[in-house]
């Protein structure tokens, strides 16, 4: 119970980080647009940081969305199967997700020395701070998928999780938002 509370707190912090990144990005772009059109000037750091915030927002958001079963799925196909068929689909999809995320992590690892040796043009940040987010995303998704796979293989998956995988736990409004 304490472990689950810690995990939930971690994801709550990530959600606040996502809010911070998105709002900061919006403010920087807005201020830059006003400065360019109103005062014929701009902040170069704003352009660069808003791009980096967008990268971080995307990759951190991918981990949060994966935890919440919010990524694209093929619910119309999965809904046709019974419980055992859905579990097989869940096992196969988690194996594929683990493989792809591990490759992504490995690619980030191989690219890290190059990114660590390069700096961004304006802020002079080492590029590993920008592209190193691939470590977090790759490892985060692998850990979530491994945990799900272990629970699937040991029979500890709940009907609620299977329904979430099949898209059955969503209202019509939520389903239309995903389309």
UniProtKB/TrEMBL annotation:
This is TRAP transporter small permease protein. Keywords: Cell inner membrane, Cell membrane, Membrane, Transmembrane, Transmembrane helix, Transport. GO terms for molecular function: transmembrane transporter activity. It is a multi-pass membrane protein. Residues 25-154 form the Tripartite ATP-independent periplasmic transporters DctQ component domain. It is found in: Cell inner membrane. Part of the tripartite ATP-independent periplasmic (TRAP) transport system. The complex comprises the extracytoplasmic solute receptor protein and the two transmembrane proteins. InterPro entries: DctQ (IPR055348), TRAP_DctQ (IPR007387). GO terms for biological process: C4-dicarboxylate transport. Pfam families: DctQ. One of its GO terms (cellular component) is plasma membrane. Belongs to the TRAP transporter small permease family. The chain crosses the membrane at residues 12-37, 49-66, 87-108, 128-146. Signal peptide: none annotated.
